Amino acid sequence: MSDSKKYGLRVTQVENTWKTEITRRMTATKTIVSKSQDGFATEAEAIAWGEQALQGFLSKQADRNKRKTEKHLKAKSLAAAIAAESAVDEDEIVDEEDDFN
After folding, report:
1. Strands across the sheet with 7-14, in order?
2. What pLDDT, in 10s, does the model give residues 5-25?
3. pLDDT (0 to 100) of residue 41
4. Cα–Cα distance, 72 to 62 (Å, whole number)
């Protein structure tokens, strides 16, 4: 199972079948279901599916977070480059104004 505190696995029995839910801790008091599957014949099948699905879910989240971080860093470096360029342009404008006086 996962060591994550944010995501977890919940297995419950519904009548004669088992249901597995991947849960996400939204706040300290609120937990939501991110993914679920029901209709398992045994608890072992439900747990096996849940652990496999949770690993896939977490790896998908990690990839998504990595892409978003790269996009954020690219935008941040672009903004820094634009800011640096505008600072150089302002210096050139000030120098030109000094030449006219």
Report:
1. 7-14, 17-25, 31-40
2. 889 999 999 889 999 999 999
3. 94
4. 15
Q: What is the residue whose two structure tokens read 């994550």?
A: 4
* Residue 22 burial (CB count, 10 A): 21
Residue 20: CB atoms within 10 Å: 24
Beta strands in the chain (DSSP E): 7-14, 17-25, 31-40
Place of tokens 């006086």: 101
For residues 53 and 9, the answer to whether their CB atoms sit within 8 Å is no
Whole-model pTM?
0.65
Where do we find the tokens 């996962």? 2
Distance of CA 58 to the CA centre of its chain: 9
Angle at CA of residue 63, ends 3 and 38, nearest 5° = 60
| pLDDT grade for 35, boundaries at 50, 70 and 90 | very high
